[in-house]
Structures are given as structure tokens and as C-alpha cells.
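stuck on this fold:
=====
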Amino acid sequence: MKELIKSYKDKDEILSDYESFKNNWQYDIENEKGEHLSGLKIEKNINSIKYVNLQEWAGNMHDKEHLTSEEIENFRICLKNQFIIINTKNPAPEPVLDYETEKQRYIARNKRMVNAARENGRDETYLKQMEQDLNHMMYEYLERVFGGKGR
């Protein structure tokens, strides 16, 4: 499967091409104050998104043993375009635990997502970038929630 991100000019173009996918999913976005904007159509907020909530997306994906190529591509597109799509079947986030436990939980999820991409035939360059993106967002989340290490 080709790198879809490179073929899109902007988020609106991605959204229009993913109409059928979007109909089955909802968006869980946080605004700059950290308030949840769950269920709002992302087009209405596309210019004001400051932060995306990876926790809910990862929370919904971590139960799956294997991600499909489409799920991985959609995740990469969302990651690069600063919004995350989450599954509506289980939109509630997992409870936040202590710093180390959350960190280990994210590391395990990240590994599962990278392994799923590997099983779907991704090359090592793509996998390394994906892992870096996931880790970067994990540390942003930990910093925001815990305000630093081991609080």
C-alpha cells in the first residue's frame, strides 16, 4: 500500500476521501483548554485543533491483536494531520494510573501497532518513523497528564 499522506494536500481532502470510514467513527478531540469535544464533526473544528487525544484512540485499538492495513493507514494520516479517529464502540478512555504504569501501557501498545504494521509489509524506514511518532505523542500525553516524570 502506498504512503497515502503524500498524496493529500489538506485535511479536508482526506476527510472527503474517507467519508465511508468516517460514517462509522466519531472524533474525540480536545481543544486548547483540554476540554473534550467528543462526537463533534471534525470539519467544524478543523482550524482550531491544538491537541489530539491519542489515549482514547490507542485505548480502543489495544484490544485488537492485529490492525488492518486500513486502520494503520488511517492512523498514520491522522497522526500526521494532528487528529485522531477513535472507534465509537468503546469511546470511554481507560482510567489514568501512575506515570510508570501509563508509560509501560503505552510502550506495549506502541509495540503492538508497529508489529501490526510490520506484519502488513511495511519497510523498516516506515516502521522507525511510526515508532518515533508514537513515542513522541506518548511523551506529550505523559507530560500533559503528569506534568513531568513520576509524579
